[in-house]
């Protein structure tokens, strides 16, 4: 169940906002282009609006479904805190999947153990460094079908089952509406877990609060 603050700071329960994705969609309808996430890049701050967050997680959800990922499937994320992390987490919840958050400091051996134990079918990695970690152990992970990299990666790393995050979003944008509609309105709910990083802020409409939560 969600809640909102009135102008005099009284809490009102929103009984229909019983999932994280519904809460995001509700805020997107209310606040539109107001910032929800910010990250520091090249010495400046970039923001993501509520509207863009809602749109992005839906594109992720549709893209995952186009790849055959669905209810009960494990979606791993090997990344520091960044807006894409949030979009993937929400997109996974929307299709009734389960997020497997991974510390970006884990060794390949440690990653192999967790990915095997979780039977993750897809993993999102932040950059080429983390991509290389996964490629070192990929041959021992028969369940792992796809690796998606947030940042651009060198084409000498290109291989079957590796794709850019932008490609996944484009796949989601090109999916038939029915792919989303067949999910219905009852998205699954899970308490979110956010890797910490000093470069990401979570905003509401009155104040910005620095997110310093520990990973997982």
What would you note in describing this structure?
There is one protein chain. By secondary structure, the chain is α/β, with parallel strands linked by helices. The protein has a single domain (2-210), classed as ANL, N-terminal domain (Rossmann fold), CATH 3.40.50. It contains 7 helices and 11 strands. It has helices spanning 20-31, 50-66, 83-94, 108-118, 128-137, 165-173, 177-181, and strands at residues 2-5, 11-14, 35-41, 44-49, 74-78, 98-102, 122-125, 146-149, 162-164, 200-203, 208-210. The strands form 3 sheets. A 5-stranded parallel beta sheet has the order 6-5-7-8-9, sandwiched between helices. Helix 3 links the parallel strand 5 (74-78) and strand 6. The longest helix is centred in the first third of the chain and has 17 residues, at 50-66.
Molecular shape? globular
Question: Going by CATH, what is the homologous superfamily?
Answer: ANL, N-terminal domain
| Largest pleated sheet | 5 strands, parallel
CATH architecture: 3-Layer(aba) Sandwich
The main sheet orders its strands as 6-5-7-8-9
Number of strands: 11
CATH T-level topology: Rossmann fold
- Give the uncertain stretches in residue-range form: 1-12, 184-216
The CATH class designation is: Alpha Beta
- Count of all domains: 1
Radius of gyration (Å): 17 Å
Strand portion: 15-25%
SS-derived structural category: alpha/beta
Note the run of SSEs as H and E. Answer: EEHEEHEHEHEHEEHHEE
Q: Mean pLDDT score, rounded?
A: 80
Summed up, the helix count is: 7
């Amino acid at each position: 169940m969600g809640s909102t603050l009135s102008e005099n700071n009284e809490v009102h329960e929103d009984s229909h906002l019983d999932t994280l994705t519904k809460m995001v969609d509700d805020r997107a309808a209310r606040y539109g282009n107001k910032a929800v996430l910010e990250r520091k890049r090249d010495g400046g701050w970039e923001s993501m609006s509520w509207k863009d967050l809602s749109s992005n997680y839906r594109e992720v959800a549709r893209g995952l479904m186009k790849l055959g990922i669905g209810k009960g499937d494990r979606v791993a994320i090997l990344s520091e805190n960044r807006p894409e992390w949030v979009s993937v987490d929400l997109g996974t919840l929307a299709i009734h999947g389960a997020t497997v958050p991974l510390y970006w400091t884990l060794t390949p051996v440690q990653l192999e153990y967790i990915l095997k134990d979780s039977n993750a079918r897809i993993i999102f990695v932040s950059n080429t460094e983390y991509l290389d970690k996964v490629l070192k152990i990929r041959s021992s992970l028969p369940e792992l079908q796809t690796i998606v990299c947030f940042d651009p990666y060198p084409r000498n790393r290109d291989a079957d089952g590796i794709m850019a995050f932008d490609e996944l979003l484009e796949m989601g944008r090109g999916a038939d509406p029915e792919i989303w509609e067949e999910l219905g309105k009852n998205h699954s709910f899970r308490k979110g877990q956010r890797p910490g990083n000093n470069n990401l802020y979570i905003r509401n409409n009155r104040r910005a609060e620095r997110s310093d939560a520990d990973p997982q």
